[in-house]
Amino acid sequence: MEIIVYPGKKKTEIIGEKQGVLLVNIKGKPENNEANNEIIRFFSKKYNKPVKIIKGKTSRRKMLRIWL
Fold this sequence. Notes:
This protein is of the alpha+beta class. It contains 1 helix and 5 strands, in the order βββαββ.
């Protein structure tokens, strides 16, 4: 799954989709891996499955792997 994140927002939520890519507001800040950890927590809870960031750990555009 490909996502574009906007870190440092008030709430973690999916805000839309653009050309097959999810747009996601993230509560965590981009420092100290907070935003990445919040992404993993959010999508793990949403799908009730393990999630891993496989591409884009330091970028706003990320690729996630969700084990279904």
